């Protein structure tokens, strides 16, 4: 099977080239993203493999189907960037990687929290300039504080367990609570309003849906405890950036750690050091000393990349060899 990969980096080529050998796949790697101006570059492909910032709306999917593409393989868990109804109408198979390494994302979540709290990034920059002053680097003990985990899927549960290991009280909110897990791990499910009011740290672990879009907004930020630390390693559009900036300016929010951003398309995964940022709100966020941002790298471990390549290649091999899809991977 001939597969065209969009929006690829060196690590994609490394891991997919190794995984594809067992599935009889002929791979072509492109660095540009997929949108309605680049679909022609998928010529002669039976399948395309896409990432989180590729555009897969009805127009793009129609163009792909006209080019005889039969399979859209998402090498990620999220699927908010694809029109699934259109894919089904067009007869396109859509697959994803529902779980690659929840430990990778959960561990990055806690790494962001620890770095932000203890100001390790600022201390590192100082020491490299031979400045060994401790002024302005005071943090707080996580032990004894309250963490609020919004969303208790695999990643949320692992994050909660790590924070329990620090001696934190953990409150959780999820429309579909894992009651037995919570009882075993000493986690308390509460209302979203109580979690927002009591959490010293609030960490987001939710998919992006119509219901969760801008879950963190002016009203919900106002309900949060003064000085709260907000962490988001799930989806950028869960957070209303304008409201977040206002809460930072008023000093109601004590710290923010983000691995995702609501308008990250065209910004994250790329080098803009030579020309600056066109996004004024992202540029404003970067001016706050109590904001830490990484470029959607929470998934970036060798274990996660290997699993993404394994599952995606197996899904692609379905059409080539008529094998069943892996459980939970097929969307349309």
Order of helices and strands: EHEEHEHEHHEHEHEHEHEHEHEH
Helix percentage range = 25-40%
Total helical segments:
12
In CATH terms, what is the fold-level topology of the largest domain?
A: Rossmann fold
Structural class: alpha/beta
Q: Averaging pLDDT over every residue, what do you get?
A: 94
CATH class of the largest domain: Alpha Beta
Instruction: Going across the biggest sheet, name each strand in turn.
Output: 8-7-6-9-10-11-12
Overall radius of gyration = 21 Å
Q: Which CATH architecture of the largest domain is right?
A: 3-Layer(aba) Sandwich
The strand count comes to: 12
Largest sheet: 7 strands, parallel
CATH homologous superfamily placement of the largest domain: NAD(P)-binding Rossmann-like Domain
Strand content: 15-25%
Termini separation comes to 19 Å
The structural domain count equals: 2
Identify the overall geometry. globular
Low-confidence stretches: none
In short:
By secondary structure, this protein is α/β, with parallel strands linked by helices. It folds into 2 domains: 2-100 and 301-321, NAD(P)-binding Rossmann-like Domain (Rossmann fold, 3-Layer(aba) Sandwich), CATH 3.40.50.720; 102-293, NAD(P)-binding Rossmann-like Domain (Rossmann fold, 3-Layer(aba) Sandwich).
């Amino acid at each position: 099977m001939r597969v065209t990969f969009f929006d690829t980096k060196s690590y994609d080529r490394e891991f997919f080239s190794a995984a594809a050998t067992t599935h009889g796949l002929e791979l072509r790697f492109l660095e540009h993203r997929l949108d309605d101006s680049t679909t022609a570059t998928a010529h002669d492909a039976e399948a395309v493999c896409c990432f989180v910032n590729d555009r897969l709306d009805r127009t793009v999917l129609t163009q792909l189907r006209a080019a005889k593409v039969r399979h859209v393989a998402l090498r990620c868990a999220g699927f908010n960037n694809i029109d699934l109804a259109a894919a089904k109408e067009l007869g396109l198979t859509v697959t994803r990687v529902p779980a690659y390494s929840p430990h990778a994302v959960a561990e990055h979540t806690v790494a962001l929290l620890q770095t932000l709290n203890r100001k390790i990034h600022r201390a590192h920059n100082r020491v490299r300039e031979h400045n060994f002053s401790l002024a302005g680097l005071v943090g707080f003990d996580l032990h004894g504080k309250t963490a609020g985990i919004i969303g208790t899927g695999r990643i949320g549960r692992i994050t909660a367990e790590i924070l329990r290991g620090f001696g934190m009280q953990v409150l959780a909110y999820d429309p579909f609570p894992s009651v037995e897990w919570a009882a075993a791990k000493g986690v308390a499910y509460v209302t979203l309003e109580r979690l927002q009011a009591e959490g010293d740290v609030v960490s987001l672990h939710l998919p992006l849906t119509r219901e969760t879009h801008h879950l963190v907004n002016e009203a919900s930020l106002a309900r949060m405890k003064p000085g709260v630390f907000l962490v988001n390693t799930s989806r950028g559009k869960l957070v209303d950036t304008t409201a977040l900036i206002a809460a930072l300016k008023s000093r109601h929010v004590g710290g923010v750690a983000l691995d995702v951003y609501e308008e990250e398309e065209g910004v994250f995964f790329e080098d803009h050091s030579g020309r600056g940022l066109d996004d004024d709100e992202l540029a404003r966020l970067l001016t706050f000393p109590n904001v830490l941002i990484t470029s959607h790298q929470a998934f970036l471990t060798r274990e996660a990349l290997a699993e993404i390549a394994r599952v995606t290649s197996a899904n692609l091999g379905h059409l080539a060899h008529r094998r069943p899809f892996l459980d939970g991977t097929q969307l349309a």
